[in-house]
Amino acid sequence: MSAESPGQQNEHFLRVIKRRFRDWRGQRPFWAGLLTILGGIPIAYFPYASLKIGHMTLAMATTAGAGSLIIGVLLVTLGLTMWFHHIVRVFAGVASILLALVSLPVSNVGGFLIGFLLALIGGALSIAWAPGKGETEEAPGPSAPADGRDVPLVPGPQVGDGTITQKTGVHVDGGRNSAG
Fold it and tell me: Looking at the domain assignment, is residue 38 inside a domain?
């Protein structure tokens, strides 16, 4: 018998998948994309849905069904764009907000306000999202030396440290002037 049982390997495998998904989710506006996708579904679905109550069929079909389908498909596409091309997240967020606003008059009051609100919040989250700093990254900047001296922000010899004794300036006519 081995020291490891198959159950432990599956648990480790699931833990690795969960960690990888959490890392992937943290590098992109995941919730913005999810809400935008969920907002596009009712906008595209309701104009084509029909509800049967006994022998009576209730249909919400409108003349703007094609427009609703286009808006819904575009919102789903923008949600996927937020996930897989997060560099264009601001464009996708603004486009989601505009499509959500257009869905109000076109698509049964924006999918009965459900799709409208989800797409609107998803677009706003996409615009507001900013990539976070990793746990191992440190903030850039000069570090103070151990003896307490100031560290110059520009590398090379500095005026006043004894290596540069003369300042040079540039005249308005382009000539160089030695100032002492």
Answer: yes
Angle between helices 30-45 and 65-84 (to 10 degrees): 170
118 within a domain of the structure (yes/no): yes
pLDDT digits (tens, 9 = 90+) for 76-91: 999 999 999 989 999 9
Are 65 and 48 spatial neighbours (Cβ–Cβ below 8 Å)?
yes
Query: What residue type is 151 in one-letter code?
Result: V
In a domain, residue 142? The reply is no
Q: Is 113 exposed, middle or buried (0-12, 13-18, 19+ CB in 10 A)?
A: middle
Q: Taking the complete model, does pTM exceed 0.70, yes or no?
A: no
Question: What is the number of domains present in the chain?
Answer: 1
50 alpha-carbon distance from chain centroid = 36
In a domain, 70, yes or no: yes
